[in-house]
Design brief:
A six-stranded mixed sheet has the order 4-3-5-2-1-6. Strands 7-9-8 form a three-stranded antiparallel sheet. Helix 5 packs across helix 8, helix 5 runs parallel beside helix 12 and helix 11 runs antiparallel to helix 12. The protein is about 60% helix and about 10% strand. The chain contains 21 helices and nine strands. The chain has about 675 residues and is an alpha+beta fold.
C-alpha cells in the first residue's frame, strides 16, 4: 500500500494559495542563485586543474635513456610571456612521440605556433618577433590540447641535435625559476605544470573559501523561506493526529522539491552562461569553454546537494512543531537563543587565532580556518541579534523602533538570515580592500640583458660579445648603449652580478625593446635575451591573480548577499502577513510598519557587519605586516566604496519587498488569515 504522505504534501502545496506560491518562488530563487554560484566555483576549481595539467608536458622530465632533447625558454613581446619549447630528436634513438597539440614531432626548422602567437607574428614587424624563430616554409598550429588558454603565446620549434639552442646549458640565466630548463626526455608525460598555471588552483581555493559559506547559508535559507506559514499548517496537522515522522517527511519532501526545481534552474543558467564565463580572464588568460564544464554528473551532484541542504534546513526548523504544536499554533513561544552560542563563538575564534599565529600553514589549511571563522560568526549571529533586539527595545522611543526590537527578539534567527549575507560579505570587503601584497621588483624597463655564453666569461670574451651586440643593434636600427659587464652590482642591471652584455634602449619604447630583444637573439642561443619581465613575470602574475580574485570575490559576495537579503526580506513579509494585518487593523500606519522593517535590518547590519569588516581589516593589516607593506589611500577608498555598495544593496533589497508589504496589508479584514 502506497504512503499517502506525498499526495497529501502535493495537495497542501497546491492549495496554499497565491501567498504560498510566492514563498515557493522565493525559495526556488534562493536555491537557483546558490546552485549557480556553487557551479561557477566548482567550474573554476576543476578548470584551473585541467589547464594546469595541459601545461605539464612543457617542463622537461629527465630520462637517462631519453630519445630527444627538450629545452624550455621564455621570451616577452609587448610585456606578454611567450613560451618557447625547442625539440631535437637524438640520432640512433627510437622516434619520440609528438607533444600535445602538435601533429607530429617537429623536424629541424619546423615551427608550430599557438593561434594567438601566430596572429602576433603576422601582425608585428618581423624584427620585433618573427625573427626570433627560424623561418619555415609554413607555420604549423599548436592545438588546444597543448595550450592552457585560448590566448596563450606558445611556440614549438624543431631543432637539430647540434643546434646551440638545445645543445647549450639552457636555463643558466637569471630568469625566474621555471621560465627556462633543459633535459633529455623520452616523452611528454610531465608532472610539473607551467609556472604560469601552477598557482591557479591554490588561488581559486582561496576564493572558494571566501564564498562557499555565504552560498551555503543562502541555500539553507531557501529551506526556511516561508517557514512561518509551513509551521502553522503542519502544527494543525500535528494537532489533528499526524506523527512527528510524518510531519518531518512532508516538510522535507516539499522543501526538497522546491529546492530541486530552483537548483535545476540555476544549473541551466550556468550552462547558458558558460561562453560568457569562459571569456573572463584569470592568470594566463581566458578559458576554454570545455574546461569550465563540470559535466552532467557534477551538475547533478550540485543540484542534489542544494536540494538536500534545503530539505535539511526546512526539517531542522520544525523542532518546535514536533515538540509543541499548540505553542506554534498560538504563536506563544518566542525563539530565544542561548548563551552557549557565545561560548562556542569565543572558543572557535580563539582556536583560529592561535592556529593562524603559528604560521607555516598550507593553502588548504588556511581555507579550512577561514571557513571555521565564518562558521563561528554564523553560530553567534542569532545570539547577537537577539541581544541587539533586547537592548533596542529597552531604549526605544518611537513605535517603529519598538516594533523592530520586538521582531528581533521574537525571531532572531530570521532577522539574522536577512543580514547574514551582507555581514559575511563585509569580511571579504574589509580584507581585500586593505590587503596589499607586493614583491620586490626590478624596474629596468629600458634594459635588455644577455648572459655570457658558457666558456666566455673572461673580460675579452664579454667585450667581444658586446661588440657583436652593437653590430646587431645597428643592423636592426635600434639606438642603444651597450656595456660589457663581468661583475655588475645587482641593483644596477638585470645581470644581477653575473657576466654578460647589458643594453640600455633609448626612449623606453616597447617596440624598440622588442626589436632589441629580437636582434640580440643570436648572441647566446642557449640563453635568450631577457628584460625585467623575465625576473618579475611570476610575481606579476600572482599579484594580478590576487587582484582579480579580490574583485571577483567582492562582486560575487555582494551579489549573493543582495539576493539573500532581498529574498529573505520578501519571505519575512509573507510569513508575517497575519501580524502586519492585525497591526493595520489596530490603526498602525503603513509607513510605521515599513520603518520598522528597515530598522530591524539596519541596526543589526551596522553592528554585525561593522564588526565583521573590522575583522577583515585586522586580518589584512596582519598580512600587510608580514609582507612589509602598508595601507594605501586606494585601499581606504575601496573600503568606503564597498560600504556604500553594501548600504545600497541593503536598501535595494528591502525596498524591493515594499510593494509586497503594501499588498499583504491591503484590506486586512478581508484576508483569510
Amino acid at each position: 500500500m502506497s504512503s499517502p504522505l506525498l499526495p497529501l504534501t502535493w495537495h497542501l502545496a497546491r492549495r496554499s494559495g497565491r501567498r504560498g506560491l510566492q514563498s515557493h518562488l522565493l525559495a526556488a530563487g534562493a536555491a537557483a542563485v546558490s546552485a549557480l554560484v556553487l557551479l561557477v566555483l566548482l567550474a573554476a576549481w576543476s578548470g584551473a586543474g585541467t589547464r594546469a595539467d595541459r601545461t605539464d608536458w612543457r617542463t622537461p622530465q629527465p630520462d637517462r635513456n631519453g630519445t630527444a632533447v627538450q629545452t624550455l625558454s621564455t621570451t616577452f613581446v609587448r610585456g606578454e610571456p611567450v613560451t618557447v619549447v625547442d625539440l631535437a630528436q637524438l640520432p640512433g634513438r627510437k622516434a619520440t612521440p609528438a607533444p600535445p597539440g602538435v601533429a607530429a614531432f617537429p623536424e629541424p626548422g619546423q615551427v608550430y605556433l599557438s593561434p594567438a602567437l601566430a596572429e602576433l607574428v603576422h601582425g608585428l614587424p618581423r624584427n620585433q618577433l618573427a625573427d626570433r624563430f627560424p623561418e619555415p616554409r609554413e607555420y604549423g598550429t599548436v592545438g588546444d590540447a597543448g595550450l592552457a588558454a585560448p590566448g596563450e603565446l606558445l611556440a614549438v620549434i624543431g631543432r637539430a641535435p647540434s643546434d646551440p639552442a638545445v645543445s647549450g646549458a639552457a636555463g643558466r640565466s637569471v630568469m625566474a625559476s621555471g621560465l627556462a630548463d633543459r633535459a633529455v626526455v623520452s616523452g611528454f608525460s610531465g608532472t610539473a605544470p607551467s609556472v604560469f598555471t601552477a598557482q591557479d588552483r591554490s588561488t581559486v581555493l582561496i576564493g572558494i573559501g571566501l564564498l562557499v559559506v555565504p552560498v551555503i547559508v543562502l541555500a539553507s535559507a531557501a529551506g526556511r523561506l516561508g517557514a512561518a506559514r509551513r509551521e502553522q499548517r503542519l502544527a494543525a496537522l500535528r494537532l489533528a493526529g499526524a506523527t512527528p515522522r510524518q510531519i518531518l517527511a512532508m516538510s522535507g519532501a516539499e522543501a526538497a522539491a522546491v529546492g530541486a526545481v530552483g537548483a535545476a534552474t540555476g544549473a541551466l543558467a550556468y550552462a547558458a552562461l558558460l561562453p560568457a564565463l569562459a571569456g573572463l580572464p584569470f592568470g594566463i588568460g581566458t578559458w576554454f569553454t570545455a574546461d569550465l564544464w563540470v559535466g552532467v554528473a557534477g551538475a547533478a551532484a550540485v543540484v542534489a546537494g542544494v536540494a538536500s541542504l534545503t530539505a535539511l534546513s526546512a526539517v531542522s526548523a520544525l523542532r518546535e512543531v514536533v515538540r509543541s504544536p499548540l505553542g506554534v499554533a498560538q504563536q506563544s513561544d518566542p525563539r530565544r537563543t542561548r548563551m552557549i552560542r557565545l561560548v562556542l563563538f569565543a572558543g572557535l575564534v580563539l582556536y583560529v587565532v592561535v592556529t593562524a599565529r603559528d604560521g607555516g600553514l598550507k593553502i588548504s589549511q588556511q581555507v579550512a580556518l577561514l571557513i571555521l571563522f565564518y562558521g563561528a560568526f554564523w553560530i553567534v549571529g542569532p545570539w547577537a541579534t537577539d541581544r541587539i533586539g533586547r537592548v533596542l527595545g529597552r531604549f526605544a522611543r518611537r513605535p517603529a523602533t519598538l516594533l523592530a526590537a520586538r521582531r528581533l527578539s521574537d525571531d532572531p534567527r530570521g532577522a539574522w538570515r536577512t543580514v547574514s549575507g551582507l555581514v559575511l560579505a563585509g569580511f571579504v570587503a574589509g580584507f581585500f580592500s586593505v590587503a596589499h601584497l607586493s614583491f620586490d621588483t626590478f624596474e629596468h624597463p629600458d634594459q635588455v640583458a644577455v648572459a655570457a655564453p658558457d666558456g666566455a666569461h673572461g673580460r675579452a670574451a664579454v667585450r667581444q660579445s658586446a661588440d657583436r651586440a652593437r653590430e646587431l643593434l645597428k643592423d636592426a636600427g635600434v639606438p642603444a648603449t651597450v656595456q660589457a659587464l663581468t661583475g655588475a652590482r645587482s641593483d644596477e642591471s638585470l645581470l644581477l652580478g653575473g657576466p654578460g652584455v647589458l643594453v640600455r634602449i633609448s626612449g623606453s619604447d616597447p617596440a624598440r625593446l622588442d626589436a632589441a630583444t629580437t636582434a640580440l637573439a643570436p648572441l647566446n642561443p642557449a640563453s635568450p635575451p631577457y628584460t625585467d619581465k623575465s625576473l618579475t613575470a611570476v610575481d606579476d602574475l600572482v599579484q594580478d591573480q590576487l587582484r582579480g580574485l579580490s574583485l571577483a570575490s567582492m562582486a560575487v559576495s555582494f551579489v549573493v548577499a543582495t539576493a539573500s537579503a532581498g529574498l529573505t526580506a520578501a519571505a519575512n513579509v509573507l510569513d508575517r502577513r497575519r501580524v502586519y494585518g492585525l497591526l493595520r487593523l489596530a490603526g498602525t500606519p503603513l509607513r510605521v510598519l515599513d520603518r520598522a522593517r528597515v530598522r530591524e535590518t539596519v541596526v543589526p547590519l551596522v553592528l554585525l557587519a561593522g564588526t565583521m569588516t573590522g575583522c577583515g581589516v585586522y586580518a589584512a593589516v596582519k598580512l600587510n605586516d608580514a609582507g612589509g607593506t602598508t595601507l594605501d589611500a586606494t585601499g581606504a577608498l575601496q573600503l568606503g566604496l564597498c560600504a556604500l555598495l553594501g548600504a545600497a544593496a541593503m536598501f535595494t533589497a528591502i525596498g524591493a519587498s515594499r510593494p509586497l508589504l503594501r499588498a499583504v496589508t491591503d484590506n486586512p479584514s478581508q484576508q483569510p488569515d
